[in-house]
Amino acid sequence: MNIAKVGLIGISGFGSIHLRSIEQLQGKMVDLKAIVATSYEKNKEVIDRLTSRGVKYYQDYRSMLENHKDLDFVAISTPIHLHAPMAIDAMERGFNVLLEKPPAVTIQDIDAIIETKKKTNRVCSVNFQNTSGKAFRRLLEYIKEGRLGKIKSIVGVGRWKRDESYYQRNAWAGKLIVDGNYVLDGTINNPLAHLLNNELIIAETSEENGGVPQKVTAEIYHGHKIEGEDTACVRIITKTGIEVYFYSTLCNREEEPPYIMIEAEKAKAYWTFANRFKIEYIDGSAEEFDGGREDLFVNMYINMVEHLFEGKQLYCPLEITRNFVLASNGAFESSGGVYGIPDEYLEISNENGKIYTYIRDIKEIIDEAAENKKLFSEMGVPWTKKTEPFDLINYNRFKMFVE
Q: What is the DSSP annotation of 184-235?
């Protein structure tokens, strides 16, 4: 049995989930050799536990790469703005990479990572874990086989709630730029990025260039008092004419499993983060599939190991995420900024000491928008701003929000 030697950069925050996944596979598929954390005091208990069993600890990731050249891959779970430079550095030093999402937030950065991957002939998988569930994998197979026919439209809806502490958890939460570096933190690039990425993977799976954004019209808002966005509606027309819609908010009154609806020539399909799908065919037949409970993070590590040692297809190779980054950049360009929702349309709620910001009627607004494939301003929602389509043909540089 092949066991991959792994180094983990970042063990706190989301890095703790990576560490948990590695430890579930320790001795079975992976062998954790080294970890990186900039603060020993903050992570003392975890670091001491790991070093007691022989794992090497470093404060600088470059020292780890220099001293562990035999690693089969490194996992990078660091702040968003460090993803691109660290992935590029690791691959240039000869390492394969499992990179936390988003791989980058600007088209110039994702292109630089892709170029490095090609130049170094390294492997780079992106940890969009919602690509790994059995239901999503089976749905993609059905699409490849043509069971749904040509796809006409894809609609994604994500409605969650986040309290004020969510935006105080680190220095970049809810920010557009930190220390001169883009983070563009919000529903599009962070918590609900999986939804948009999966939509575009569905489109690309259906036909070549089906997931390549060509024109984007978007409205980006915030209810919370932050720089970035917490609510968005996006219309994407892809290179082959597929319409992709993305509706998101972190100002909903409850947590709902995000879902995707597909309209195609032969069927309508409904997939949800709950690892299930339902397909209704035009001949009247229907099919449902439940993937059950899975650890999607562990799945991504298994997939990486099986790709390296057995040649199994990656669930989310770096190159396919370029469509996601391009769509994100197009959304910001079209919106022209992030617009605050006036207080009169918000409700602040104290729930067991946690402060939540809700947008009044946002659930119903998104339901209507998704059903009719409209942007919020096209429905006459009073707090909205009408925006213009943005053409992404030959687009290669994002430079908003910098003076």
A: --STTTTTTHHHHHHHHHHHHHHSTTTT-EEEEEEEEEESSSSSS-SEEEEE
